[in-house]
Amino acid sequence: MEKRYHGLSLVSRNLSRRMIRLFRQLIACSALACSITPAVAQISFTSAVGLALKNSPKVMMAQADVDKARASLAQLQDAYIPNLVGGSGIGPPSYGFPLGQPSIYNVTSQSLVFSYAQRDYIRAAKVVLEATTLTLKDVREGVAEDAAITYLALDRDLRRQAALREQQGFADRLVSIVQDRMDAGQDTAIDLTTARLSTAQIRLARLRADDETIADQTHLARLLGLPPRGLGTTSVSVPAFNASAPTDLTGTTVITSPAVDSAYAIARSKREIAFGESRYLWRPQVTFQAQYSRFAKFNNLQDYYFRFQQNNFAAGVQITLPFIDAQHKAKAREAAADAAHAEHEADSIRDQFLDTRLRAAHTAAELSTRAEIAALDQQLAQQNLDILLVQLNAGNGNVSGVQMTPKDEQTSRIAEREKFLAVINANFESQQAEINLMRQTGDLETWIAAALQAQPSVPSKP
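-> structure tokens emitted (462 positions)
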């Protein structure tokens, strides 16, 4: 008996030691899991759009084009300001008669006084600056549109993932219930296969939703210049969409697209250049020139020139009047053809913009109605589910002579989540169409600015 009790005590001690080791390993694994869990960074809607505009290479390139146009305008205007250039032609004494001008140093100055074409070139440069500014505005609106739609897409993805997880849980419980009912002889193998098929379809939908979430998360992180891991959204920071009023989409509607205005500005600038090129012949061009030189004496220049002096200065104007220049006439014709091409291209961009805006307006109205229908459909499913739950909890699961069961409850829950997913997708498509329409009508920047003023205190949560 003592040996028996001694053996039992050894077994008990060994078991307790194993339990302690397992418990320690469980604690270590839990700590490791907590350490590798990615931090979730939630960023507000307006902050996301602001970061996208700040970090966009497209915006930076457009801003560089504006700076280049401004510098080109200054270059043409500064042609009337005299320059100042210094030089030196000093060298060893020449053998025999001195060659060239043996100046110790010289200073020259030159500037444009009058030119018919220069004024046209300056006007063209001013219009180019206007065009690049409009292009910058259009690029900023395009980046803001991309950031806003991607933000809404990621918000839709995160909400959809949560709904799919709930739907997956309902489907798993449905499979378990059907399995028990089949074992009890109440359901058939077909019912079990149908439940498993529904579970597999939901699992596939979750995999596809995860892929879309990763893609949208990565794209938004690239726009913001942030790491994509753990990047999240704040649904309450999304500004409300104004009710779309009937928009006048006839041909008399004022064009508000920066891209169209920029195209017409470029056409005007090329027309100014063509006009300036056409006024080159038979029109004078006046330039100012001045030079000071101090000559050296070691080249014996004073021995060969009467009244030699070291200090020399000359100033005056030069008038040029071209009569015949076939090359420049061909260049003027080329500039005129280039201007005509730019004008026709601007007309094409305008027509394409009007067609796109018309389609965007109709699409926004249709998708808004679809979102309303999906919301009412989901509301109806939720109301039916609430009635079923009340009857089941009251123990009177009998509707129209049909006995309601937990299987019907899970089926109703799955159907309600399916309707809810349809609402999420329909709302996102409607919001996307609204943003596209605001981009076409020129209201996107105003809408984002209003959202920034209305929600200045929505922080980014690390």
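The CA atoms of residues 64 and 132 lie 9 Å apart.
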